[in-house]
Queue: 4 jobs
Job 1
Amino acid sequence: MEERIIYIDGQFYPKSEAKVSVFDHGFLYGDGVFEGIRAYDGRVFRCEDHINRLYEGAKAIDLEIPMSKEEMTEAMLETIRRNGLRDSYIRLVVSRGMGDLGLSPDKCPKPTVVIIADTIAIYPPEMYENGLVAITASVRRNSASSLDPQIKSLNYLNNILAKIEANRVGAAEAILLNQNGLVAECTGDNVFIIKDGVIMTPPIYVGALNGITRRVVISVIKQLGLPFEEKEFTLYNLYNADECFFTGTAAEAIAVTMVDGRTIGSGKCGPITAKLLEEFRKVTRDPSQGKEIY
Ligand code: PMP
């Protein structure tokens, strides 16, 4: 495979030479925001939604991105082109930039912008057929009163601790509850359950990222005319659901068949989930949903 070409602050570098300073506050403090985006069939899926979320997250942490949304989009498209990819997973990273060893951003005159276009597979292919096993993490989702989970910040320690718990017991994913014990989301995915034909996902305020895959799946549900509610729910509701699935850009959409040792529904990918996954895959390849790269 040819070496990946990486964008850093307006220049392109081969992966082996793509480097950021150890004084960058993204590295020293996790100070920054990022996006994970997919391209399907030569089009960036829901490009504007991702760019908008990046800029909103940056605003929330008082970080001014040193380029316009149009320039960011063009830099991303050019990075994908230089890597010759049609199907890709793209990472946009904007950190506070280089500063001194103190944490104050006022010593960081210029944010760092990095764009990586590569591929990703966070779960093995057979899990997309058979569903995955998840656990509930003992760590709770960051509270919105400390670090709002809506900000896709470079500080993923909360999620990483949850992932470590999952890894330790051989589960593919960890579910995070909020401070009140309500199901919030996973380490990199949103959660949906289905009970008696009604599809439910927690409202964003419970402590979830405003997932773009979540939005796409909700629009698919509405188009199909299926019963849907944004609703708070607990582990009790999750264990007793007929079906469960997770959504995320990297994960796409995937059935969940066991949580904390409880079999969900039939223990297989359920019929409503299967239909939604199928429709979701069609939408990802719908030309009207993507921005042309080439
Ligand atoms: N929650 C978290 C914590 C995430 O990191 C992600 C992945 N970006 C998601 C949910 C899913 O969001 P999206 O569908 O926009 O990728």
Job 2
Amino acid sequence: MTETIPLPAAAPNRPRTVAASPATLEAEAVSAWFGDHKVLDRVSLHMPALEVTALIGPSGCGKSTFLRILNRMHELIGSASLAGRVLLDGEDIYDRGRRITRARREIGMVFQKPNPFPAMSLYDNVLAGLKLNGIKAARDGRDDLVEECLTKAGLWREVKDRLRQPGGALSGGQQQRLCIARSLAVRPRVLLMDEPCSALDPTSTRRIEETIADLKEEVTIVIVTHNMQQAARVSDHCAFFLAEQGTPGVVVEHGPTDEMFNSPQDSRTADYVNGRF
Ligand code: ADP
Ligand code: MG
């Protein structure tokens, strides 16, 4: 369904997009089940506006599930049921009457495996970020939006002379930055990133980290990473998830990243951040 969103007054030539307005995200006692299998137990986490929160922890402890719950993406993959609340600047994104499409538009997602539309041009890939969210791009201002999003994703200079080439022609790292550009087209208030670098080489990883450092000037970021150096480099806050022997995932500890790495309160956090399991 196509929604009509008022044009920002200061930018008459822009396509119809939501004005950027970074928000705080708050999970309150979030529990999740796949059928009878409980995978998250009362996870509460404050993710401040314009900061980067890193979710760390071993595989299978519910980080991806938690991330998808933060923008109602899990409703697409079926069977997870949920208790608790997710507040975007104090408003529950699960409130009855609040549209699922609104949550996805305000809270964007970038996945582990870059997933641009491979046969679609770079230009159209960026604009697809609008279409995927049911927003019609006015013809005027499309070029500006594409340039703006590719610039923010750190890709503009590399691709500005070949915007008609297909997305699939880019390297893996460039494809991931294209996906970031696509997710920025609707000017999300929060950007969720699920291991965005784990399929990439070290140089591409560094470029994405630079992009994250720039983006946090205007969007709240939550990133899942298995790379402790990366968590230390890019994040302001860290949350350590753990699921011990058949129990559901919990947040063992969270706090400012330097405290989590230099003076963790829980011995399991210390072991994890020091690579001992
Ligand atoms: P992480 O991202 O930390 O590796 P996940 O959120 O992917 O963890 O998985 C947490 C738990 O939920 C695991 O036990 C996993 O097997 C289970 N799980 C994840 N997705 C599904 C699904 N679609 N259906 C059933 N179980 C799932
Ligand atoms: Mg995962």
Job 3
Amino acid sequence: LLATSVSASVTVSPSATAAAAVAFGAIVPAPVSAVPAAGVTYLITAATAVYSEAPEVGEQLARQLRRSTGYPVPIVTAPPADGITLRLGEVAGGDEAYQLDVTATGVVVLANRAAGLFNGVQTLRQLLPYAADAATVQPGPWPVPGGRIVDRPRYPYRGAMLDVARHFFPVGAVERYLDQIALYKINYLHLHLSDDQGWRIAVDSWPRLASYGGSTAVGGDPGGSYTKAQYQEIIAYAAARNITIVPEIDMPGHTNAALASYGQLTCDGVAPPLYTGTDVGFSSLCTSKEITYTFVDQVIGELAALTPGPYLHIGGDEAASTAPADYKAFVDRVQGIVTAHGKTVMGWHDVVKATPLPTTLVQYWGSDPTETAVSTAGRKVVMSPSARTYLDMKYNRRTPLGQTWAGLIEVKDAYGWNPGAYLRRLPPEQVLGVEAPLWTETIRTPADIDYMAFPRLPALAELAWSPYATHDWTAFRQRLGAQGPRWRVMGIAYYRSTQIAWP
Ligand code: TNX
């Protein structure tokens, strides 16, 4: 039945072969096409080698396979007769597209760019037995079901957001989340770096932002902030996983931590106390003071210099303590500052009340499909409708964590909408993608993140990646359920939704 080139001592049980066949139809996000080759299996053995034209992508794959299989998995300098080949060449569908072929003698992933090879490897991981993602050596065997997958993303922006301001998450916790979301081909991580309750990034020209403004968190929990080196470590870790960091400094509201650190940023010159509650809309930078724009220019300048990605997010949400005319003047001027530092402005959709630049990327967080202001602004939009994508909303009344203001969001609610058609007045071609925000007023640990993000984050990742023609709840609840054992192997403390067909 199996390839003859494998070492004679290795046999694959019928149940392992059956499991492999299931895996071919259980990839999340669903690929554009996946055609199994009946009876064909490649078996990873002690003889398997890896060749890669994107060195970092090949190294990562080999490292993981060594860890779980215990095989040597050498990196070789030419496509091996028995092994995994990651090759640059021409495939349809752009930088992130890939084609994956599994035959009896090996796996070949073909892509235009390293990003496509990375995506193909994430698919390959899901074709392997779950144990391949383990951190320690597992028994095997290691069959890969035969066939061909042709794949490319629906949207170029497939994001997650982590609020590190309400609660601070150290570098290791962010890297853990990056590892988890990369498996689902998420390619942007938006870091909400400042809010009323904490300032989380070192700024040399305004050092009290981090040292004082970063000292608190919601509920009096420990604060913290990233040094510049740590922020760059996160960026590099993300880049190795095809993920671009989008830093956010929220303004003019959500700024109590900055105002508490520097009283000159308030209109009366008096610094308010640090804040550890969860109200919104009570703070504002003083938009009529020139020092405010010096502050913004220096903060944005330092952050832009550290950030290789194209976007710098200026927040702009819930500025209830800023007069409308002041808000407009402030946002318009800040857009110029961001542009002067070479970055593209991103903002919560409140910024359409100002004059968004033609290039400003608008992040929609409402839940009104009939709204018009965002839809007619003529700008590209990232869809984060709160009633569908907010990972801090409870699944149901009994969910121990989270909030309810945007509704209860079970997995079926997170999955059951079309990002291209949610806003009825928004031309579908203006949708750049989807982002799943995780606000952390009630989220304090990596296990809390796991529980709120899984399984909804993979559902939203599928909406962002897969052709809408694959959208089918009945099939999805099976495919998503098949991910559960992998999450256990990876140590993800996911929510066992009763809506999902767990194996
Ligand atoms: C609204 S949505 C906020 C955040 C809160 C979140 C809690 C948005 C742009 N702002 O400040 O953390 O609700 O769910």
Job 4
Amino acid sequence: YLNVDAGQPIREIPSTLFGIFFEEINHAGAGGLWAELVSNRGFEAGGPNTPSNIDPWSNIGDAKSVLLVTDRSSCFERNKIALRMEIFCDSEGTNQCPEGGVGVYNPGYRGMNIVEGESYHVVFWIMSTGSVNLSVAFTSSDGLKILAASSIIASNSEIQNWTKKELILKATATDHLASLSLTSSKKGIIWLDQVSAMPVNTFKGHGFRKELAEMVADLKPGFIRFPGGCFVEGQWLRNAFRWRQSIGPWEERPGHFGDVWNYWTDDGLGYYEFLQLAEDLNTTPIWVFNNGISHTDQVSSSTIEPFIQDILNGLEFARGPSNSTWGAVRATMGHPDPFNLKYVAIGNEDCGKQYYQGNYLKFYNAIKLFYPDIKIISNCDGSSKPLEHPADMYDFHIYTSASNLFSMTNKFDRTTRTGPKAFVSEYAVTGYDAGKGSLLAALGEAGFLIGLEKNSDVVEMASYAPLFVNTNDRRWNPDAIVFNSWQQYGTPSYWVQQLFKESNGATLLPVSFQGNASSKLVASAIRWKSSESKEEYIRVKAANFDSSALMLDISITGLPSGSIRRLDSKLAILTSNNVMDENSFDQPKKIVPIAVAMENGGTDTSFPVPSHSVIFMDLPID
Ligand code: AHR
């Protein structure tokens, strides 16, 4: 049986222990958490990166009635490309336009989710050689039904120069795979640029897709690491994420082609929005910045100074007073108060590279000089040998099989108790065991997380990777949250993270197995207080990696007798018939923790633990 000694608390678990890692991979942000419906809103994504130079925009009408080309006429200096739409047909004369007009449409990220009763904010920039009457509509996937429509009527004097137009479209019908169309039946030339469509209703009103942000908020993350991953590094430095290019008015952002995960991002979800998201989730931001190193090229330590200044500017943007140079830019964007940025990571997975140590030290010294309170995370693994440079924390990444990860429950047992703490900033079961998110993967992860909880004196933070996948563009398997334009569900790995969310800031209690304990059974216990009910609980978690079921008898010692209300205790089990089972859009809750009634209302201390399962039990304390 399992004994929990509630009288000998071990330590308070860091309030940051379990958090999230957001990377722009799998269209996690563009076409995902960022609620922008238009893909390639500035017509900038073309060139060698996409099949057409305005992809995924396309024409409505044939070559005799409309011609779409791009030119460099935009009024935005950092993204000069605009769409030039020449309409040959007219509502009068011999070349009559077809009913509904001709023009251009954008299907978003493989379909826009337009929902009856919801309102959408459409913004675009327009210029023309004459007057215009432009219809703006959301249309059904077959193009036959108008879901929401409005129009812009403007005289030539009004739009002979670039002019911003805004509309609110309210949907009268639903289609999950809709498009946005801009059409006219009037001969002439219209230029369009920076076309955006956002649902009016977003998470905290800051542009995040509500259902996805709520799934993240539900994890009560202790931190958010962003924006990558390899996304930060780039295959080549020229394609790395640059904070400076991702701030300011969205129309002026150049966007960039992420060459590691191979897609364009308009960078509507930029550095400012990540900081805002952290604030909206009431969590701690961790900014991973490019340190002059990509997968292919590197800036030498003797020439890294401009990159360092750029990062210092980025820190001033986040934390400086609103009258500082970069703090003022933040204030203009709507956030006069500094953001609570206290952690940065210098690069991602770059430790072994030629200039890492040299570049790292230069970034480290400069940041500590101006921001001594900022905690700095190194890419070098300090779990088995000391780091060669100063650091507050070190990254530890692990992607492996389920049995390996489960057995790594002891990974940090022998790590030195002095020196920088571990940030397990990426962990997951991958490969055959994982499929697209199996129960088996979640079991391996549960065993590993139990070990991290026990070693939370040397492990300060941990996050699963990747967080999101849009099923229309899977670049990595498995992931925690799966979605398309309108549906979403958590994989079993997501649900395992749910079981650990109350551990942040809780008290770790010692557990010991008595008798013949299986090496495939690991457990931990915490004492935690519900912020909602203010009740205190002991939570016992156990992961059974074995193919046999067992009986578990839980005894709690060290508390005055009668202080545990066994009758009100709750038991839940995460399991399935087959270890390779997965959740899906059709069965999103096939594998989730299921409450199990306990015999004799919980007064029986012993209960069956199924094979291949994770159990958790909450026992209220008076
Ligand atoms: O999580 C996916 C990728 O795995 C990350 O971008 C990278 O850091 C790691 O190699």
